Amino acid sequence: MNLTKRLLSSIRVANSLYSTQLTRPNSLKNQVITYSFPNLHGKLFFSTNPEQTIHRILSEKWSDKLEQELLNSKFDFNHETVMYVMKKLSKDPQKASDFFNWIVNKQGFQPSSAIYSLMLRVYANKDSIKWFWITVHKMKEEGFFVDDQAYMLILRDFKNLNMMHEALIFTKFYNAMVKDNAGSDVIKEIVGVVIESDWGNGVEERLKQMNFGFRLSENFVLRVLKNLRKYPLKALGFFRWVSKDFNFEHNTVTYNGILRILGQEDSIQEFWNVFDEMKSNGYEMDLDTYLKITRFFQKRKMLKEAVELYEPMKDAGYAPDNITYSQLIFGLCKARRLEEALEVIDVMEQNGCIPDIKTWTILIQGHCGANDLDKACILLANMIEKGCEADGDLLDVFINAFLGHNKTIGAFIMLTDMVKSCGVKPWQATYKNLIQELLLDRKFDESLELLRLMKKHGYPPFLEPFVRYVSKYGTVDDALVLLKASSFKESPAVSAYQRMLKSLFEEGRESEAKDMLFRCPPHDEVGDIRLPNIRNKYSTILDDFMNQIRLWFTLMGVLSYDT
Q1: Residue 548 belongs to what H/E stretch?
Q2: Is residue 528 part of a domain?
Q3: What Pfam family is a match for this entry (predicted)?
Q4: 561 or 429, which is more confident
Q5: Residue 302: HSE in the Cβ half-sphere, 13 Å Cα cutoff
């Protein structure tokens, strides 16, 4: 029997064991959330045109021949598609740079702040740092700005690469840029007027008196919107007003700019209205905007919106990456639309996007949360069969699911099999959680086996629940086996014996404490105390209560005896 079949057989047995054991209250609370989403069935396939272009660029060396092939492809290189291609090329700085220079310098493409910010992220490494600073200065000369998220990601990359000098200089540039952007007299005045009053004729009249129409450009509008990002409805008012009173024609850049601001709880209806308007005018949301907004939706638990936004991006021909797919699966699972979540996995593979462990974990957790452990186990076996290795996070999901249904033995079988068959190292917290639940169900032997596995994985011994259990319900043999299993040395430490004896006394089990003391094996000297001396000195005084108290104080370190 191969690994997958053996594992699947084992976890099915684990799932079936103790399925009716309900001796303790169910600790797993499942809150079912119902949403109304657009139907995804049968509509999960992407246009291959953008992917063909990206494949061509990645598979060929940059040359005049490749440039001509790109021209002959009749591919529409607009803001959205350039952003998409750049995003997909971001892990290959040289190819991304070749494409960017060709599309800008030879094809006359006008990059936006968002595209420039993306290029900075591509160049933020030791090999491309020269091009990074060239792009920074070009952005400054042309009045573009770095968006907040790009700045944070670039700063993180610099720190991870130990490029602290570059991080310091870039921070100074960014702070100066923010100050310049907010400090422009005209922009500062516009923002002040818009913020201080509700939108209406009074605001519009005051704006007209500023006579800034000759300055209007997509970058100027974006700078105003950026400074109004905390006031989404007022930002929308300005967006509408410049179009109405100045006949400013919004394009894909300004539409994407306002959508990034409107994608919040308080302005979600306005977000969809502008989104539909943008589509009707022939523009599309770019991939960078989509990723930023969907991640915000997920962070704010706006799952309905995240799933709805996926549809038009798919129709536009943009193949999501693992992060985007994972977000979609997360939303579908939370809405209990598990069959559609499974379809997304199939589509990922059809489009050459291999699900990673995080994506599988989200899908499996969704089935566990919906009380479908059988399907979750099958998915785990399928995942392993496809070459994706399980990890501690995924195992923790399963253990919590089993424990949520009071299947402690099933959880035990699951964990031990995943360790032995798949080499998974459980989290320390997973071990602790399962050990405590097993001891509550009086499963001492199974708990002890987990303690031994913990020791093999290098975790410190988790003795508290064992000591409590043995002192209440266990035998002296249990106590001695526990002490041996918990020790990293050949013999347990004297402090471990003291701890167990103390706990037995606290439970009023003086007879067991006396028996344990006489059965303690010989020890080497540990500090100033030898266990044989403890045993010999106290063997004659354990017959009466006062001498038991004396032993208690000695073991607590209050009294001492010369060896």
Answers
A1: helix 545-555
A2: yes
A3: PPR
A4: 429
A5: 19
442 and 522 housed in the same domain: no
What span, in angstroms and rounded, lies between the C-alpha atoms of 84 and 82?
A: 5
Instruction: List % helix, strand, coil for the chain (3-state, nearest 5).
Output: 70, 0, 30
Tell me, what's the pLDDT at 176?
86
The tokens of 346 are what? 């199939």
Q: What is the largest CA-CA distance in the chain?
A: 103
User: Do 223 and 191 touch, CB atoms closer than 8 A?
Assistant: no
Whether residue 555 is contained in a domain is answered as yes
Question: Are 135 and 100 within 8 A, CB to CB?
Answer: no
The pLDDT value recorded for residue 543 is: 46
Distance, CA of 293 to CA of 291 (rounded, Å): 6
pLDDT of 235 reads 95
Question: Which residue range(s) make up the domain with 503?
Answer: 464-563
Q: Which residue has the tokens 């607590």?
A: 556
Q: Is residue 154 part of a domain?
A: no
Mean pLDDT of the chain: 81
Q: Dig out the tokens for 239 from the structure.
A: 């967006």
Q: pLDDT digit string (tens) for 237-284?
A: 999 999 998 889 999 999 999 999 999 999 999 999 999 999 999 888
What are 179-219's pLDDT values in tens digits?
776 556 788 889 999 999 888 878 888 888 887 766 688 88
Residue 534 pLDDT > 90, yes or no? no
For residues 37 and 110, give the distance between their C-alpha atoms in angstroms, rounded to a whole number: 37
What token pair was written down for 399?
């253990």
Q: What is the tally of structural domains in the chain?
A: 3
Mean pLDDT in residue range 537-558: 47
115 touches 218 (CB < 8 A): no
CA separation for the pair 389, 63 (Å, rounded): 40
Residue closest to 422 by CA, chosen among 369, 461, 383: 383
Closest C-alpha to 319, from 44, 519, 537: 44
Q: Which residue has the tokens 């209205």?
A: 273
Give the mean model confidence (pLDDT) for residues 507-528: 70
Q: Which two tokens stand for residue 137?
A: 């200065």
The verdict on 511 and 491 lying in the same domain is yes
Residues 6+ apart with CB under 8 A from 29: none
Phi, psi of 414 (to 5 degrees): -60, -50
CB 314 within 8 A of CB 46: yes
- What is the rounded CA–CA span in Å between residue 401 and residue 371? 8
Residue 253 within a domain: yes
Q: Tell me: the pLDDT tens digits for 377-412? A: 999 989 998 899 999 999 999 999 999 999 999 999
Supply the pTM of this predicted model.
Answer: 0.59
